[in-house]
């Protein structure tokens, strides 16, 4: 209960971290459609950039799983002007970093450099986004490394459970497929496919660039226009991605593995962060399974000793979200542990939470929120989240206000909608 006591002290002893004053950043849409978000932090001589492209695995063809992930991975492995080793040398020489990765919804290129090296950093960023070479040798090497990583991940019960649950919560939707693809699909990918994916999906009108650090918005606008101003979007729109099913069938799946304990996941469709029920559900989730003072932790671990870890949470996404509960327990205790979880879910739908539970949940959620922006990297990442979820640049202040307004009646209402145990699918990994 250490962190609960800390949150209580922060909020109730008058030591809460200061509220945000005004918007998180300056926002501007550049002439080619790129969205620019700038937070000026002149006291820190470092500049952090997140270039987010709406080109995640949702755009993978059904028979080419892992294509978006491989494309993002290869962006920094060579350009029309520099080889992969030359890119590495250029960024490492100035003590910076440049790396890419993909998620379900998008790909991110992260850049971090000292202020004095920003021009070089932006040159490299423009090269990898606009002119990647996708060397054949690098593609073959990374494909095998990714395939080997997928094989290793099959030994991780949590990964196995997550992949199976995605199929149950998002049936028939791109979210049901793993971002990295499968061993077979990754090994089939060709350079021609990667080049075509980049040509079709890397375009300025689907790019968000967030910049945090020792810069001014006028300066960075000029610098970006010099490097990206001539980058134009194709006339043809990309195919629309559908929303995930709102009410998929409820299923229970058991995956046998020779393990000493079982990993259990329960999940159902959730809601976006811009949904009116979001704030009450955040508070309800904290009370149910958000920390070491939660009902699940108290009942399943502390009182019954059935699980080392038990938790609940919200899994956001642009085309579908989830609400989930996870735990690990002894093989012989799976049924009992799941029964207790479902009992606590049902209790949230029937009984009002206490005033003390609400007080402590709000104290933690509001008091800890500023920690999400205490580094330039965290701030740059949050700006992308805010932009992609249409939350508004006053989001931290609205988050605080929204959490503060939540009542016991609000919690009971959203619990009845999103915590009914009969609406949760389950996956158990273990004999």
Quaternary class: single chain
Name of the CATH homologous superfamily of the largest domain = Metalloenzyme, LuxS/M16 peptidase-like
Gyration radius (Cα, Å) is 23 Å
Any idea what the shape is? globular
Low-confidence stretches: 1-19
What is the CATH architecture annotation of the largest domain?
A: 2-Layer Sandwich
Nearest-integer average pLDDT: 93
Number of helices in the DSSP assignment: 16
Helix content: 40-55%
Strand arrangement, major sheet: 1-2-6-3-5-4
CATH class of the largest domain equals Alpha Beta
Largest sheet: 6 strands, mixed
CATH topology of the largest domain: Cytochrome Bc1 Complex, Chain A, domain 1
Number of domains: 2
Strand content: 15-25%
Distance between the termini: 33 Å
Order of helices and strands: HEEEHHEEHHHHHEHEEHHEEHHHHHE
What is the strand tally? Answer: 11
Structural class: alpha+beta
Task: Please outline what is shown here.
With 431 residues, the chain is of the alpha+beta class. The protein has helices at 2-12, 67-74, 84-93, 118-130, 136-153, 157-169, 183-188, 191-201, 217-228, 278-289, 295-303, 334-350, 355-368, 376-388, 395-405, 408-418, and strands at residues 26-29, 35-40, 46-53, 97-102, 107-114, 207-213, 252-255, 261-269, 307-315, 322-330, 425-429. The chain folds into two domains: 26-228, Metalloenzyme, LuxS/M16 peptidase-like (Cytochrome Bc1 Complex, Chain A, domain 1); 247-429, Cytochrome Bc1 Complex, Chain A, domain 1, CATH 3.30.830.10.
């Amino acid at each position: 209960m250490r962190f609960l006591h800390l949150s209580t002290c922060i909020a109730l002893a008058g030591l809460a971290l200061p509220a945000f004053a005004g918007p998180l950043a300056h926002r501007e849409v550049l002439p080619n459609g790129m969205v620019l978000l700038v937070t000026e932090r002149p006291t820190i001589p470092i500049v952090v950039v997140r270039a987010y492209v709406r080109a995640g695995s949702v755009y993978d063809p059904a028979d080419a799983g892992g294509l978006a992930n491989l494309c993002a991975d290869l962006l920094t492995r060579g350009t029309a002007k520099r080889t992969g080793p030359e890119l590495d040398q250029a960024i490492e020489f100035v003590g910076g970093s440049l790396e890419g990765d993909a998620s379900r919804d998008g790909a991110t290129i992260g850049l971090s450099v000292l202020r004095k090296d920003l021009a070089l950093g932006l040159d490299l960023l423009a090269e990898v986004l606009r002119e990647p070479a996708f060397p054949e040798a690098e593609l073959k090497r990374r494909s095998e490394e990714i395939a080997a990583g997928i094989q290793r991940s099959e030994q991780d019960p949590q990964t196995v459970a997550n992949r199976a649950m995605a199929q149950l919560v998002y049936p028939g939707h791109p979210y049901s497929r793993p971002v990295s693809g499968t061993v077979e699909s990754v090994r089939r990918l060709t350079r021609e496919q990667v080049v075509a994916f980049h040509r079709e999906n890397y375009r300025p009108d689907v790019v968000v660039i967030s910049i945090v650090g020792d810069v001014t918005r006028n300066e960075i606008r000029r610098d970006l226009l010099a490097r990206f101003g001539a980058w134009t979007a194709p006339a043809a729109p990309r195919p629309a991605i559908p929303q995930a099913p709102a009410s998929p069938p409820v299923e229970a799946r058991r995956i046998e593995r020779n393990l000493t304990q079982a990993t259990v996941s329960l999940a159902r469709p959730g809601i976006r962060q811009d949904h009116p029920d979001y704030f009450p559900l955040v508070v309800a989730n904290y009370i149910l399974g958000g920390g070491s003072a939660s009902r699940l932790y108290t009942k399943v671990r502390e009182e019954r000793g059935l699980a080392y870890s038990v938790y609940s949470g919200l899994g956001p996404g642009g085309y579908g979200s989830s609400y989930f509960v996870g735990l690990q327990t002894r093989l012989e205790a799976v049924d009992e542990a799941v029964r207790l979880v479902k009992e606590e879910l049902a209790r949230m739908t029937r009984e009002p939470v206490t005033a003390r539970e609400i007080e402590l949940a709000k104290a933690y959620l509001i008091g800890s929120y500023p920690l999400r922006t205490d580094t330039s990297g965290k701030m740059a990442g949050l700006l992308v989240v805010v932009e992609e979820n249409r939350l508004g640049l006053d989001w931290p202040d609205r988050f605080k206000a929204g959490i503060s307004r939540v009542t016991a009646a609000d919690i009971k209402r959203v619990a009845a909608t999103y915590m009914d145990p009969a609406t949760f699918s389950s996956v158990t990994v273990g004999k």
